[in-house]
Amino acid sequence: MGAVQLDRGSWPCEPNPxxxxxxxxxxxxxxxxxxxxxxLAGPVEDIDLTDLDRFARGFPHADFDRLREHEPVWxxxxxxxxxxxxxxxxxxxxxDIVAVxxxxxxxxxxxxxxxxxxxxxxxxxxxxxxVGVLLNMMDxxxxxxxxxxxxxxxxxxxxxxxxxxxxxxxxxxxDAALDKGDCDFLIDLAAELPLQAVxxxxxxxxxxxxxxxxxxxxxxxxxxxxxxEATARTQAAVAETRAYGARLFAAKTADxxxxxxxxxxxxxxxxxxxxxxxxxxxxxxLIAAGSxxxxxxxxxxxxxxxxRPELWRSLHEDRSALDGAVEEMLRWASSTSYNRRTATxxxxxxxRRIRAGDKVTLWWTSANRDASVFxxxxxxxxxxxxxxxxxxxxxxxxxxxxxxxxxxMRVLFDTLLDRVGTAELTAPVEYTRSNKHTGVRHMPVRLxxx
Length: 450
Hints:
Organism: Nocardia terrae
Distance between the termini: 54 Å
Cofactor: heme
Helix content: 40-55%
CATH class of the largest domain: Mainly Alpha
Radius of gyration: 22 Å
Number of domains: 2
Shape: globular
Keywords: Heme, Iron, Metal-binding, Monooxygenase, Oxidoreductase
Number of strands: 18
């Protein structure tokens, strides 16, 4: 079917009337409906990226293959699943995503136009609650100032000091899983090393890490809700995390140590300390980001190796290929599916007119399967060179923890290759129900020692 011209008002999927503009999350919207005519390609008209059931069995790569081919800059109309009752732009090609991610003046991580909310999710979040307070929802100069405070704690030279400790932890973790034989790779292995590492870096007692892990899982998964919705369970998890963070900051203020939260507790920018809200949001962000994305990259990477046992044998024999394998796992997993920006001014992208205030979503996972950059993109290739993946984003918001994630993956897989002879699935992988993170809930495996 060729491209057809549709006025937005004629789109067949009528949005929920309770979510029409003006009645969005927290009543934040102040955005008039679009009246311009938009080109929608027939081959993509059935795609709804706000229907989380579409992501419940992993990332829907086939949908994005169609988008890259037919509508690389696509206006996603609102559906019954879409928060705020308004559409948004979907970018699926590598070059467009890199361009937008590198232009923070035109595409803000906070807000734009007449919009009274914003942030990096499809749904609007309130200004001064998350927007402008969370590090990943800040623009410069505040973003650069806060980031500069944290960077020394995750620099390669600093992380080198904890690598031996991580190797000892990894050996203990892998040996415990081997003793079980049958285990949940996600819970017992993939999550455990990143969780221990982030607890150590933040100054969280190790005995508290699983409680924080549980709260983060509840907040990030959508097993009992849809986009833009909260349940009593998710609200309780967020409140418990914030309360824990407040207690931790109080302790670090009174008795600082050599950890990241002590640094944040005593840091100043232009002579002023971080606000209590900035501290609370920073703690929640680092707990989630420091454990969630890496564990999923590890789990999905291991799944690819289970499906290609000859690669497992090859890596065991030649560890010089491990760094390249880790990069391919990161591309393959692409654990953060998308981030949103908001247009600050009227502009064009390709042949599309984007207005100030429009939501623009950058789908990193799709960029990492773009055949114009990655030949044979749906093939897991540990020898892929070059591999300029966007698993950690691009531009000023490039992932602060990228060095830590790479080191954790390298250390854990090095240990697994030393100790594990074979690995096989014993039941299907269970994925999280989310379009924001390609996550694994459970991955039952049987490990045999080498």
